[in-house]
Amino acid sequence: MDITSLYNANINNITTAKNAFDTLAKAFGQHVDAWQHEVADRLSASQWTGPSSAKAHGRIADLGGQLRAARQEISFVSKALANAAEQFALAQSHLISALDDAKNAKLNVAPDGRITWDNEPSSPNFAGAGAETAAVAISNRITAALNEAVHADQEISTRLSHLAANASSGTGLNAATVAQDQAAETARENIPVAGTDPNSVKQWWNGLSEAQQQKFIEAHPDRIGNLDGIPAVARDRANRITLQQAKQDLQLQFDHLGPEPPAKVAGVSGAVSNPARDEWERRKALLQEQLNGVNAIDERLTTKVDERNPPTYLLGFDTRGNGHAIVAVNNPDTADNVSTYVPGTGARLGGIKGDIVRSDRMVAAANEASNRSKTTSSITWVGYDAPQSIVPDATKDTYAKDAASSLHGFEAGLRATHQGTPSNNTILGHSYGTTTVGYAMRDKGLPVDNVVLIASPGAGVEHARDLGVDPSHVFVAKGDIDRIDMAPPLRADNLVSNGANNIGSWYGVVQNPDHHLIHGRDPMVPDFGARVIPTTPGTGHSDYWNDGSASLQAMGEIIAGKRNS
Fold it and tell me: What's the pLDDT score for residue 366?
């Protein structure tokens, strides 16, 4: 496929062929219906019996099935042509758009794709200082448009060749063949349900044309944007649509809250607190908080990309409950190193701005660790309902258990959509996020290379090896003034064990006291078997990502694969 062929392609010819097959299918269908009524139904209603009748009835029934199969196969030809017209039209529009932009930028595009421009500042056709950068971008768009057309050509050829073979061999008259063809058509049109194996989702997505993919993104952005196995670029496009829709919806709800109800209402024995006022305040606070989160994400997505602000991708989004969002700094599908950061207690849509800042800092730390020889994507995963209070929420492990399947699906999706050599993947949890990570790894297994547990109240396991990765790739950290290790265990035997170990250490009898926290053994104790990373003196529970801190530097080295031996 070349520029001239695609630019001059008459898509109407495909549409004309599609319309002709529509007419044929309609006429053939009418003949089938007439035959059924005039021949098959009359024969069934007749009084004819005997051996010849049985044979005739059987043959008529077989012929009816063959006619219905042929009718459906003709409709598949029409559908294939319709899809081809959409695909070629989209590829052609992308090419024309790129060529128009090239013309506006004073770039000259040759038929073979070479791009030239006038470098003379005094010339009226001077393309400007950024001409080379613009030319590269235009060239990439032209190549992408031509590739779309090639894909469309290959797909229509494959589908029509298959249907033609069915027709010439007679297999298209077989109900089983038609059922297989119908299943293939259905697969192209139906979105896999949430929780489907990400590899199957990726295979389904790859089987769609770009036009079909775009239609799904535009028609069902909420489903495509949150489906593991869909590539990051497509999820981002879908979720940006959902984000803007949510922004408008939240603002509308906020604007229509109505006036604030009175604080008190009359009761039996005097004025009492007004429940309507409490609900109004709760609703207002939630809407304002979610708007803050949406605006923070929108601001980061639209920030001009430069060395300090890498491109950002929205890989998941909804406003259910406290809201959820998954934000990637850099594209995880093309990055050499990919980290997923799972925040803990209090994590929700409204507070995601600070978590994205942490992802930005981890990318910068990994870049420094690798001297920018490798690309890194850091993902903030607020894809679960995190506990919102230390007591009683964070004392429960139900939040971690409920998140296990979602986190596993997301990590499996990262593996399924990654391009080229498998990336070095790190899962990193903070506080209750380490419990969420630990439970997912224990119960589901996560396809990651490294685990980092920061300020953990327990990861649901007794030993690093129970996480399903090489213990030498499990890293832990706790700041010197972080009191997360004061979270007491719930089990009585662990309380007794803690007391005995503490007393033993005071008297020098126990050199490395074991210790259990509320969600399992303290990952910092030697018996857990993890590698301890350094922290800067004065590190509290929220200080691990401070600029210049020893813990941030260590995280960057782990994510970049520099501490994995």
Answer: 97
Query: 42 and 145 share a domain?
Result: yes
- Give 455-484 pLDDT, tens digit per residue: 999 999 999 999 999 999 999 999 999 999
Q: Tell me, what's the pLDDT at 476?
A: 98
Bridge partner list, 381: 326
Give the residue from 155, 174, 190 where a domain finishes: 190
Whole-angstrom distance, CA of residue 395 vs CA of residue 379: 26
Tell me whether residue 385 is in a domain. yes
Average pLDDT over the chain, rounded to whole?
90
Instruction: Tell me whether strands 376-382 and 324-329 are parallel, antiparallel or unpaired.
Output: antiparallel
- In a 13 Å sphere around the CA of 232, the CA atoms on its Cβ side amount to 26
Number of H helices, E strands in the chain: 16, 14
The 10 Å Cβ neighbour count of residue 283 is 13
In a domain, 470, yes or no: yes
Range of the structural domain that residue 67 is part of = 3-190
Report yes or no on 218 lying in a domain: no
Model-wide pTM > 0.90: no
Q: Which residue has the higher pLDDT, 29 or 331?
A: 331
Q: For residue 118, what is the DSSP state? A: B
| R_g over Cα of the chain | 31
Segment 102-156, tens digit of pLDDT: 999 999 999 999 999 998 888 998 988 888 888 988 898 898 888 888 878 888 8
Are residues 460 and 444 in contact, defined by beta-carbon separation less than 8 angstroms?
Answer: no
Give the residue from 154, 169, 190 where a domain finishes.
190
What type of residue is 477? Answer: A
Q: How far apart (Å, rounded) are the C-alpha atoms in residues 344 and 434? A: 7
Looking at residue 385, which CATH number applies to its domain?
3.40.50.1820
User: In this structure, are residues 532 and 554 in contact, taking their beta carbons and an 8 Å threshold?
Assistant: no
CATH number of the CATH domain containing 173:
1.20.1260
Structure tokens at 359: 């992802």
Q: What are the CB-based long-range contacts (under 8 Å, 24+) for 252-256?
A: 253/287, 254/284, 254/287, 254/288, 254/291
pLDDT band at 565 (very low <50, low <70, confident <90, very high): low
Our measurement of the distance from residue 327's CA atom to the centroid of its chain's CA atoms, rounded to an integer in Å, reads 10
The helix/strand/coil state of 339 is strand
Alpha helices in 210-351 (DSSP H): 210-219, 221-225, 232-255, 275-301
Q: What is the dihedral of CA 209, 212, 213, 217, to 10 degrees?
A: 170
Within a domain: residue 99?
A: yes
Q: How many structural domains are present in the chain?
A: 2
Question: Is residue 453 scored above 70 in pLDDT?
Answer: yes
Q: For residues 486 and 394, give the distance between their C-alpha atoms in angstroms, rounded to a whole number.
A: 13
- E-state strands within 77-193: 107-109, 115-117
The pair of structure tokens assigned to 469 is 């990765």
